[in-house]
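Apologies for my clumsy wording, but can you show me some protein sequence, whichever is easiest, together with the matching structure tokens, please?
=====
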Amino acid sequence: MSVWIEPLCINCDMCVPECPNTAIFRAEQHYQVDPDLCTECVGFYDKPACIEVCPLDCIKYLPAKPE
């Protein structure tokens, strides 16, 4: 599973250093998450660290993909 960052992201840089998998990167308009690298911080934290530090609450859980 992964998280995603909504377009209302203001590129505040709070989430980038919190990601233990370096899954967050600067895209053309705002930060984005590489879903292949994001593990929702499993094995590192109890909750995704990026969600915890986002001042705008613009980082959300991706819906589960159907099998």
In short: The chain has one domain: 1-67. The domain at 1-67 is CATH 3.30.70.20 (Alpha-Beta Plaits).
